Amino acid sequence: MSEKHVSSVLAGLIGAGIQSSRTPAMHEHEGDAQGIRYLYRLIDLDALGLEPKALPDLLTAAERMGFTGLNITFPCKQTVIPLLDELSEEALGIGAVNTVVLKDGKRVGHNTDCLGFAEGFRRGLPDAARERVVQMGAGGAGAAVAHALIREGVQELTLFDVDITKAQELVNNLKAIFGPTCAKLGTDLPASMQAAQGLVNTTPVGMAKLPGMPLPADLLRADLWVAEIIYFPLETELLRQARALGCRTLDGSRMAVFQAVKAFELFTGTEANAERMQAHFASMGK
């Protein structure tokens, strides 16, 4: 971590339907605690009536207005890549970016979602069975989570997505990096769920603006562990149903906090206090 301690930061989050995001408050609170003048703004495509094709203009505007960096969320984590000058090794391997540092006239893309999910998984489900896991979703967040799961010891990850081409591309990416048996494209959800020890949802289904379940509730069973990356609401319908059955569960709060911890460090060059950021996230309620 750099020794340079910035005195002020202007950051933002680009995404669709992000008015409920706790990211701005987490960053600004940690900045205050460290004596950094920290302003974090939401750039909500939905609220602005914009499509992801507005990304080039938004990045240019952020540079012109002196932004230190941007976080990137659904649906822009992959479409932003061609607009960047450099990618970190992590972002390049995953094929998705959730943090862009704007410095010295360059746009450098990073991925802190992978680290964020891995840290939350280690802390929240430390002894979870890892032989066979089903993951719903193969988008930008899904790619980061898949990488994290395999790094954390998952031996066979079965991927399902409504976009089969996207799911197959992620399977190919994982196999190229981790080996030929680490992942496969899901074709029979009931059979895969019957064989699985764990389930991870990385789709937006379950968010406040997209309520519901990413799979039929009758495919859940008590001996499964179930992880979610959505944090608004903290208890999605999937987690509610899983907990009612007695499943061990992991909500989206840890990933939200730990990806923000790393993004804060990239923007400021200063180490964040993860425990303080966790406590502040929890204080914002459900």
From TrEMBL:
Binding site for NADP(+): E89, G137, A138, G139, G140, A141, I229, G252
SUPFAM superfamilies (alphabetical): Aminoacid dehydrogenase-like, N-terminal domain, NAD(P)-binding Rossmann-fold domains
Recorded metabolic or biological pathway in which this protein acts: Aromatic compound metabolism; 3,4-dihydroxybenzoate biosynthesis; 3-dehydroquinate from D-quinate (NAD(+) route); Metabolic intermediate biosynthesis; chorismate biosynthesis; chorismate from D-erythrose 4-phosphate and phosphoenolpyruvate: step 4/7
GO cellular component: cytosol
Catalysed reaction, written as an equation: shikimate + NADP(+) = 3-dehydroshikimate + NADPH + H(+)
GO biological process assignments: amino acid biosynthetic process; aromatic amino acid family biosynthetic process; chorismate biosynthetic process; shikimate metabolic process
Domain called SDH C-terminal: residue spans: 252-278
Enzyme Commission identifier(s): 1.1.1.25
Known role: Involved in the biosynthesis of the chorismate, which leads to the biosynthesis of aromatic amino acids. Catalyzes the reversible NADPH linked reduction of 3-dehydroshikimate (DHSA) to yield shikimate (SA).
Assembly with partners or alone: Homodimer.
Identification of the protein by name: Shikimate dehydrogenase (NADP(+))
